[in-house]
Amino acid sequence: MTEGQRAAAEAAAQLAAGEADEPVILNAPEPDTRRVYIQDPAHFAAVTQQFVIDGDTGRVIGMTDGGFLPHPVAAEDGSFFAQASTVFERIARGKRTDYVEVFDPVTFLPIADIELPDAPRFLVGTYQWMNALTPDNKNLLFYQFSPAPAVGVVDLENQQFDRMLDVPDCYHIFPASPTVFYMNCRDGSLARVDFADGETDVTNTEVFHAENELLINHPAFSLRAGRLVWPTYTGKIFQADLTEDAASFREPFEALTEQERADGWRPGGWQQTAYHRPSDRIFLLVDQRDEWRHKTASRFVVVIDAATGERIAKLEMGHEIDSINVSQDAEPLLYGLSAGDKTLYIYDAESGEELRSVDQLGHGPQIITTHDMDA
Amino acid sequence: MPFPTKARTLLAAVAMALATASGALADKIELLDAAPEDALVVNIDKMKYETPEITIKAGDAVTWTNQEVMPHNVHFLAGVVADEAVKGTMLKKDESWSARFNEPGTYDYHCTPHPFMRGKVVVE
Ligand SMILES: [Cu+2]
Predict the structure, then answer these.
(1) CATH code for the domain of B47
(2) Residue A208: how many CB atoms within 10 A of its CB?
């Protein structure tokens, strides 16, 4: 029985029983590890939507509106979700306002609206880790590209903008403690930024990849584990464990075999990488493609043991998938999002079997966010 | 352009803003329509300002010339050479942009689409 059939039968039974219809505003179910957020940047439209879905049942349980290329975040403990957004006084022109909104995870009511001074948001196709919450959920960190690289600190606890931190020529934000985060720098190193006590202390790690090893815009990162998983265009996987003190790099490995690479297999899509913390597994979207078609959809996911680099599975998705993620429970769901189909396909991550799907998700859905609640 | 070198103060809007404000920044920089003969040259190539720090005397002009097909410009943030930001036009290969610096000071700049390209003009 489909969801619509179930609701129809329920309504018919109520009618037969003489129960009156009392329209109310619903609450969403409490957040859990299988709740999934689908952000739709809508191909650069001035306004956007995010769909909140129960991965277990494939039901849309709520929605949030956003402005231009908003960035979604979700507290790992499920206590709230938020976004950094941008609006203009005349739809797509006029005075620009950047702001951060925090939402109650059950009522979806905005519980904070914090303006960001001087429109500092980096307007860019949404990359999952271009903004981040600190692990204590007290601050939201966002990136500024122009006129100079900087990271904005938004104090969620006191509901106010704190300050901009000057940083080197580095991108993305990976928090490792309440006051330390890492960024990936043009010179091939990571920057460690400590912003405790009103200071900004920046140090750089060693250079960990060559200039011709192109790291994609969509690394996977676990806030809870501190694990950063960063593929290149060819599927070479760099990993680092980020702690408050330091970044320690793991031995890189190839996600694709020599034969596959010879046969034109490469990663591709949007959010191409997922990391399952409890099982220490990496999921990577791959297909056969030209070298410079790295943003087209893929039809396969390789599953890799992050500790050994060994291939566990190669799953055939059955659809043109642009973005993937996984739920962080012991028997995870694998989420495969097709921007073309505007559909979220939900799979069993172990077998790759497609369980259900959710369609009509906006104009070009691209970003999948979850709560990592089983600490 | 076939015209003689003609000094032109900043864009009208900037000049207006300065006139109504303190006016102290009005003479710090003059944008020039063409490269003066005696200008000091900063070449731009391989995603860099080749002389990222140049020291000149008050009244000297500087000409930036892009040597590569990647477009670049010169961008001073608000408050550096004027109350408003001065965002130079994008230079294609072999194009130039010139300015005269009239007051001692250190003026930091960057390239708008490449914020990692940075330079400074030190005026003695
Ligand atoms: Cu440039």
Answers:
(1) 2.60.40.420
(2) 19
Please check the confidence at residue B3 and state whether its pLDDT lies above 50: no
CB A199 within 8 A of CB A240: no
A222: which strand partners? none
Residue A80: predicted pLDDT: 98
pLDDT at res. A196: 96
Neighbours of A357 (CB within 10 A): 16
**Chain B CA closest to residue A168:** B116
Give φ, ψ of A9 to 5 degrees.
-65, -40
* Domain chopping of chain A, boundaries: 3-370
Q: How far does the CA of residue A103 sit from the closest CA of chain B (Å)?
A: 34
pLDDT per residue over A50-74, tens digit each?
A: 999 999 999 999 999 999 999 999 9
| A80 noted as active-site residue | no
Residue A94 CB coordination number (10 Å):
10
Average pLDDT on A262-274 reads 98
CATH architecture of structural domain A3-370: 7 Propeller (2.130)
Domains of chain B: total: 1
Query: What is the domain range of residue B58?
Result: 40-123
**How far is ligand 1, taken at its centre, from the CA of residue B114, in Å?**
5
Q: From ligand 1's centre to the CA of B116, what distance in Å?
A: 8
B116 part of a folded domain = yes
* B16-65 tens-digit pLDDT: 333 333 334 457 999 998 889 999 999 999 999 999 999 999 999 999 99
